Amino acid sequence: MDVSQAVDQRISTRAFLDKPIPEADIRDWLTAAQRAPSGGNTQPWRVIVVTGDAMQDVIETCQKALADNPRGEPTDRLIYPKDLWEPHEARRRKVGEMMYETLGIPREDKPARRQWFARNFRFFDAPVGVFFVIDERMGHGQWAHTGMYMQTLALLAEERGWGTCFQECWAMLRPTLKQHFSLGETEMLYCGMALGYPDPDHPVNSLRAERAELSEVAELKGF
Predict the structure, then answer these.
(1) Could you tell me the pTM of the whole model?
(2) CATH class for the region spanning 3-81+122-208
(3) Does residue 223 have a pLDDT over 90?
(4) Quick one: pLDDT at residue 96?
(5) 70-90: average pLDDT
(6) Which of 145, 130, 126, 149 has its CA nearest to residue 191?
(7) If I label 16, which of 130, 141, 188, 216 is the partner at 20 to 30 A Cα–Cα?
(8) How open is the CA angle 137-143-149, to the nearest 5 degrees?
């Protein structure tokens, strides 16, 4: 598989096979991703990888937290900016509607939509969960560098036949997860990732989110 193929076929995988990934393979994957770029070679990222009982502990801890705070816990770093503007808000809404249409869940079936969203907090039944941690003192550049690392992991996962889903939803429970993982005083959880072998028969994995036309996002000058 070349890089272009990995980029093209990567999707947000939301259904996984009941097939574990050995620790040695996870270590190899993480080691390969250490070649991701970062300004000044700061390498501002840290990851926590869970499976088995450790994953179940996270799930149960977060279910209790959500029972107390169904809308999530307070955070000064929102997943999306308040009053997200166009065309970004339209894109966000469109991919959500595409997903529920693929699943056959109509707009008026709010309970079914809530049930599906709740699967986020079980990693969509993936065998492995990854959490990305960054120091709060880092600047916007280091957040971007962490994103480069995350994308590198996703493409390396494609090469290995694995599926990934970046899960910003875990940011709704940052205080709980900070305590659960005994993070440092200035450390914070950025987001999570579900990781495993994709279920090729689940309809949700047929979803390919639309992308903007090149003319909407790029200007070429001097050519």
Answers:
(1) 0.94
(2) alpha beta
(3) yes
(4) 94
(5) 91
(6) 130
(7) 188
(8) 130
What whole-number distance in Å separates Cα of residue 133 and Cα of residue 184? 10
Q: Note the Cα 175 to chain centre separation in Å.
A: 18
Q: Could you tell me if 199 and 141 are in contact, meaning their C-beta atoms sit under 8 angstroms apart?
A: no
As a whole number of Å, the CA-based R_g of the chain is: 18
Q: How far apart are the first and last CA of the chain?
A: 31
Predicted pLDDT of residue 211: 95
Residue 75 confidence (pLDDT) above 90: no
Which residues, including other chains, have CB under 8 Å from residue 118's CB and lie 6 or more apart? Answer: none
56-85 residues labelled b (16+ CB within 10 A) or e (exposed): eebeebbeebbeeeeebbeeeeeeeeeeee
> Would you kindly state where each structural domain of the chain is located, as residue ranges?
3-81+122-208
**Quick one: pLDDT at residue 88?**
95
pLDDT over 90 (residue 214): yes
